[in-house]
Specification:
- Keywords: Signal.
- The chain is mostly beta strands and about 180 residues long.
- The chain has a seven-stranded antiparallel β-sheet, covered by helices on one side.
- The chain contains two helices and 13 strands; from the N terminus they run ββαββββββββαβββ.
């Protein structure tokens, strides 16, 4: 028997925790997709994800539910942030994938990364346990217009427009 997946895409998240603080637009309608394979799910997700803004997704299946937030740039690189991880003892992380789904840069990589928010350099606050630095980074992220990742890797620098940053504070799966 094939497993089925349902995907709920919310350009504006309306979780009760955040509903009062988010601008709800009547023209944005959640989309549910049921697929029977991971590859079909990935194709649908690529079609649904708007460019240059954060989007909130919930993936449902009989085996598990998975919540994530991502931002696709004009070069079709996809940035995922996990600040408020649902899993216990999982620290904040990021991942950048190319259009083919290959990992290009992540918080787990053992290379030097400099994250730049509107020309302010923050280094890599994901690389070490410094709660104060991460809090400062998250506060700046809520106000910034452009996120840039500089690293010695294929495709860098990676640039993303930071529209709808309030979605970054949603609880997501990080593992």
């Amino acid at each position: 028997m094939k497993a089925s997946w349902a995907l709920l895409f919310l350009p504006v998240m309306v979780s009760p925790v955040f509903a009062d603080s988010l601008p709800v637009q009547a023209d944005l309608i959640p989309t549910r997709i049921i697929v029977d394979s991971h590859s079909k799910w990935e194709k649908e997700l690529k079609k649904l994800t708007p460019q240059d803004q954060w989007s909130y997704f919930e993936l449902y299946s009989p085996e598990q539910n998975y919540v994530f937030i991502q931002n696709k740039n004009v070069r079709n690189y996809v940035l995922s942030f996990g600040f408020n991880c649902m899993e216990a003892d999982v620290k904040a992380k990021f991942l950048i994938e190319d259009a083919g789904g290959l990992d290009r840069l992540s918080s787990d990589d053992q290379i030097t990364v400099d994250i730049v928010l509107d020309d302010q350099h923050y280094g890599n606050p994901f690389a070490y346990d410094a709660a104060a630095d991460m809090d400062k980074f998250k506060q700046a992220l809520m106000q910034t217009k452009l996120i840039q990742f500089n690293a010695e890797t294929h495709g860098a620098p990676f640039k993303f427009i930071n529209q709808r940053p309030e979605l970054l504070m949603a609880a997501v799966n990080c593992s």
